[in-house]
Design goal:
Strands 5-6-7-8-10-9 form a six-stranded mixed β-sheet. A five-stranded mixed β-sheet has the order 1-11-2-3-4, with no helix packed on it. It is globular and about 65 Å long. Helices cover about 20% and strands about 25% of the residues. Helix 2 runs parallel beside helix 3 (about 85-100). A hairpin with a 2-residue loop joins strand 9 and strand 10. It has one domain (about 5-260): Purple Acid Phosphatase, chain A, domain 2. The protein is of the alpha/beta class and about 260 residues long.
């Protein structure tokens, strides 16, 4: 087999891999989780990078309807082509109807005026709650589960103190941050779960999952997966879409379902 044939085969496989979505399931033990939220489920979606002709909106909506999570968490980088904006609006609106709770943050690409204007970001925030260095709570049976969201850490917009300032003290917090680089900040010990993306898991990896390029100012191991950081579990999703090179190698797209439990 010639080198050219090998290259063509790798490219073909990489293109096919961009559509091979896997659903990862994780259990997060939070001993002081409010009892009403024991067994609460989160569906984490990130880095959609929707294009005008993308099939992902229909697929992700079907996934959410099938899984029926208690909350969908979105962590940024929503479109790759400006023409995909109407599809994003439709997707968010349908998610808000299909799932009881949806919370989101913006990513670094969402502040590129060529993709999303300030007016469009405001419109999106009227469809679902976007946590822009701010907290929010979900109520159930008289108790509350607290979320906090920061603006993109990769470009230095995150204000973690502001995001936590209005949350009550001594309650467990679920933090949404587009990039795992938020762990370079001093983390409040009440943050128990951090959901992030940004890296695409490397998008193009060597066999075994080594990513030559991570696009984060963190050690290589934080390019994807589950990590313990102080009192918090950090989960770095491989994300849904792809940028520039529309291929994925040894690093397929991922949606993650988290089940929160008090344990024991």
């Amino acid at each position: 087999m010639t080198l050219g044939a090998v290259a063509v085969g790798l490219i073909a496989r990489g293109i096919a891999n961009t559509q091979q979505l896997s659903v990862t399931r994780e259990t997060i033990v939070i001993p002081d989780l409010p009892t009403a939220f024991d067994g609460f489920t989160l569906l984490h979606l990130t880095d959609l990078h929707l294009r005008t002709a993308s099939r992902w909106p229909a697929r992700l909506l079907a996934l959410a309807r099938d899984l029926q999570p208690d909350c969908v968490c979105l962590t940024g980088d929503y479109i790759m082509q400006r023409g995909a904006y109407p599809r994003l609006v439709s997707l968010l609106g349908e998610l808000a109807t299909a799932v009881e709770n949806v919370v989101a943050v913006f990513g670094n690409a969402d502040y590129r005026e060529a993709l999303l204007t300030q007016a469009q970001r405001r419109e999106l925030a009227r469809i679902i709650p976007f946590l822009q260095n701010a907290p929010a709570a979900i109520a159930r049976d008289g108790q509350r589960l607290w979320f906090a969201g920061v603006e993109d850490p990769h470009d230095g917009y995150a204000e973690l103190d502001a995001a936590l300032a209005l949350a009550p003290p001594d309650v467990p917090i679920i933090l949404l941050a587009h990039s795992p680089e938020i762990i370079r900040d001093t983390l409040d010990p009440h943050i128990r779960l951090i959901l992030s993306g940004h890296t695409h898991g490397g998008q193009i990896c060597l066999p075994g999952g080594y990513a030559p390029y991570t696009n984060i100012r963190l050690p290589q191991r934080y390019v994807a997966g589950r990590h313990q950081v102080g009192n918090a579990v950090l989960y770095v999703s491989r994300g849904i879409g792809s940028t520039r090179l529309r291929i994925r190698l040894n690093c397929g797209p991922e949606a993650t379902v988290f089940t929160l439990t008090r344990g024991g």
